[in-house]
Amino acid sequence: MKSFFIALLTLSSFFGVKSQVKDTLVSREIHNKRFEFAPKKLYVPAGLMVGGLLTDLGKNSSIEKEIVEERNEHLFGFTNHIDDYAQFAPFVALYAFEWAGMLPRTDWQNRTAIMIKGQILNLGSVYILKKAINETRPDGTQYSFPSGHTANAFAGATLLSIEYGQNHKWVPYAAYAVASGVGVMRMVNNKHYISDVLFGAGLGILSIKTAYLTHHYHWRKRKSDIGGLAEIYKYQNSSLIK
Predict the structure, then answer these.
(1) Are 208 and 166 in contact, with CB atoms under 8 Å apart?
(2) How many CB atoms within 10 Å of residue 35?
(3) pTM of the predicted structure, to 2 decimals
(4) Comparing C-alpha atoms, which of 141, 132, 128, 24 is closest to residue 79?
(5) Is the Cβ–Cβ distance between 78 and 188 less than 8 Å?
(6) Tens digits of residue pLDDT in 120-139
(7) Signed CA dihedral, 100, 101, 105, 110: sign only
(8) Measured between alpha carbons, how far is 217 from 106 in angstroms, rounded to an integer?
C-alpha cells in the first residue's frame, strides 16, 4: 500500500508539471462560477449511501463477513496510520495547487466558506450517526458506522474535483484515488466494514455538493469589478451633464 501512495504521488507530480504548460493557454482570472444543480450530480453519492445502508442491513451476509474473514486470514495483526494522514491530503492540495499555479474555480474566500459549511454538515452528520447507531467495529471497538475518515477524504476529493477538475482534468482521478485508498485502508486496518466506507464516501460527496449548491458567493465582487462599475457610473454622469 505504501508503494501505491508513492506511485500516486509521483504520477500527480508529473501531471502537475504538465498542467502548468497547459495553463498558459487558460485565462488566469477566477470567475467564481456557480455550481449549478442537476439531478445527475446526486446519483453517485446517493448510490453509495444506499449501497452502504443495504450492505449494513445484511451485516451477517456473505459480502461483509467474507471481507472481514479474508482480512483476518491474510492480514491479521496488520496496522498502520497512513489513512490518518492521507484523509487530510485533499484539503492541503485545495490551496497548494493554486499556490503552484493551477487555476481554481473560486477564490480562496469563497472556497474556504464552502469547505467550512460542507465539513460542518459532513462531520456533524458523521458524529450524530455514530452516536445514534453505536455500531461495533470489526476490531470490537465502538462507533463503526459510518467511516469518518472516508467521509472526510471524499469530502476533500469532491472539493478538489469541483475546484480544479474543469481546468485540470487529471485532478478528479487523483483526488478520488487517494480518497478510495483511505477507505480501503480503514478496512485493512480492521476499523470499518465495507458498509461504513460506502456510506461515508457518499456522505462526504453529498455534503460538499450541498455546500456548493447553497453558497451565495458573498465575496465574488473583486476590486477590479468595483473599479469598473465606478468608471461606468462616472461615464454615465458625465454624459448626462453634457
Answers:
(1) no
(2) 17
(3) 0.77
(4) 141
(5) yes
(6) 999 999 999 999 999 999 98
(7) positive
(8) 9
